[in-house]
Write the structure tokens for this entry.
Amino acid sequence: MTSRPFATDAKAPSPRAHPVKDTRHGIERTDEYAWMRAENWQEVLRDPSLLADDIRAHLEAENAYQAALMADTEALQKTLVAEMRGRIKEDETSVPARDGPYAYAAGFRTGGEYPRFFRLPSAGGTEETLLDGDREAEGKSYFRVGGVDHSPDHRRLLWGHDDKGSELYTISVRDLATGEDLADTVAETGGGGVWDAASDGFFYTRLDENHRPSKVFFHRVGANPDEDRLVYEEADPGFFVGVSGSRTQEWVYISAHDHETSECHILPANDPEAAPRLVAPRETGLQYDLEEGGDIFFILTNADGARDFKIVTAPASDPSRENWQDLVPHEPGRLILAIMAFADYLVRLERKDSLPRIVIRDRHDGSEHTIAFDEEAYSLGLQGSYEYATDTLRFSYSSMTTPEQVFDYDMRTRTRTLLKTQEVPSGHNPDDYVTRRLMAPAPDGELVPVSLVYRKGIALDGSAPCLLYGYGAYGMAMPASFSTNCLSLVDRGFVYAIAHIRGGKEKGYAWYEDGKREKKVNTFTDFIAAARHLVAEGYTSHDRIVAEGGSAGGMLMGAVANMAPEAFGGIVAAVPFVDVLNTMLDDTLPLTPPEWPEWGNPIAAREDYDTIAAYSPYDNVGAKDYPPILALAGLTDPRVTYWEPAKWVARLRDRKGGDHPVLLKTNLDAGHAGASGRFSRLEEKALTYAFVLKVTGTMDSH
């Protein structure tokens, strides 16, 4: 590996080792940095000032070391922020969506960090601000808006906010006539809610002491929140609970789910005192979601072996399992992702041959047609609608070269109308770029899709630097969509690549199943295969590839660093889930029980313990020549707790060979998503990109 200079006299932090032994299934492990896990971590989520002094001092020392080693990039970081900000339309707004007498939208003001929510009369008239994020965020170091939902009678606004990054949202009710919040404030919720049909109250989820949404309550406006009615309580700590509503505002859905099983209860929105009715009892591996269709429900499900999902119908009067009737049968290799029902049409978003498509079905005669697109790789999204009795579908389209476009599509005439194209104020010509889709051979013969974008004219002789991004978990597919930020690398001669590895659903549900639990290693070997294929095809060379991933993608970064450190010139791991074994053994952590279907339960099963122990990045750090590594963390992160990257970085420094640095930057005012403002987030991205440019020796390129 080519040496990259990190010239500084700064000394890396050397935290104390305090070995703690743990024995499971007769196997003893020693964790010398277990002390970094604050005993009062739940209180720290609510009040970061309660963090123990020695832990805070260590995190601050790591931040100082990172700043010292990256000091020579400060001017570059400012340049990158200016570039990325220059590509953002500062007064960006969404296309208003009509709901009866009003059309609702959100946007930003010039210079604003947070969204503003507003509406206009559908017949035309003056814009009315409903919620001003910048105003609400004044005086707060962190602020994030949760759910925002107007009442059916348009008189009130239900909105949530988090001011610590801990994802403990407070929800409030705003009187839209006065612009003032009522006394109906509920703390430590999931962030949003669902109005009843009469606009008199709302359903919401409340988080328990382990930060899990386990209860659904109904709050009547004007009542004491302490007396809210408990509507549903989930007894299994492995299941998360959510509440949502139908677009016709006739039904409220209460869902309980983990990563492979779901269960739904329904109740009429006009009778909030009704007891929830179970649709189909939970059955391990059975998933289903309801979409209202008048006197029937459309149900997207994997029942009866429909691995890539099918659509069934059931009468709204009794949607129980015995009444399900196939409408759109299962087709292996065609993964149905989402459905949306209208009075005359059923729309489905599906993926086939690694690409998304939108299919429109006439509810009267069963005929279908597909909306066609031409590019080699692209991204689609259904935009949603407040209205049910309409022929208009709104969707978004983008590719790695094409900025996002929003269309209204007339499902009857089959014509589309372009409503908006994402503006890039500093300029962007799609013809200056090339987007490609490669297929990288994995060790077992599978072909891994890799999406690329690069500037026309760069030499494809192995000399180009490359940022290779990956995730590969929970069945989440990484879209080949437009990113203005990555142009700061692409315009400097980089190849920007996304590896669509197993663990996602890019090639159907089987692609996900082949990258989880005992097959998790496929995720890692797929990513390494993508890197090697890019080199074999002349797009880059190994010492010029920087790998990037976050959260579960950060686990990917830790694993490939252990398995093939020579394949990468640098690694960026954002809020990385790297202490997998310890976390999955700690059932008090927010996500642990719900995560067992994804990774396995090492408490209950020796086989799962062995599987996780074999790849867990923290447990497999060795005396290897690791490339330069930058890890990013958030102090109030409830998903990947701050101590995971902190422990990993400390152990890497202890055990690794070579002299490449390992850096840790912890945001002491934020959680999993990093900085909350749209421009403050650019500073974190600028640090990442400066690191990428530094380790590839391209800081002076443009």
Remarks:
- The chain has a mean pLDDT of 95.
